[in-house]
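TL;DR need structure tokens for one chain.
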Amino acid sequence: MPGPVDYEKITIAPDPDVAVWWDATKEKKFLLPECQDCGHKWWPPWPACSACASMNVGWHEIEGTGFVYSYISVEQPILGHMVTAVPYVVAIVELPDGTNADGSKTRISALMLDDEADVAIGLPVKLEWDDHPTQEYKMPRWRVTDKSAPGAWHFSW
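>> reply
TL;DR here they are.
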């Protein structure tokens, strides 16, 4: 299991484009930006729809489940708050409830709670939350829920 993330080394100061998202984390809610004109969902948040460029943006709460689309093991931290966590896995998680009208899936970056040996492409994951030690915000983390799911693929040398 990865070591602890030192959240005391980061201060969350949301700008207007992500303030709603960060406020939702206080209630352990993960929101995707959703265009109110065309229904497109995307990640990460920014002020205009990535499909139609509308600035009429709302929020869509996800259930907190998904599948590993891809992943990488980080052996050398580049951010100070991650030094104690190495090695750790960052995955791209595909969200079933982030499906768009054109059939495309919304994918997010996800800091995993599992070791690299326990993560594989295609495995199901669920959202969990870490507390920030000095702020009310919660930090999203993801965990594999079924290591023996059929069709999973694990990178090996």
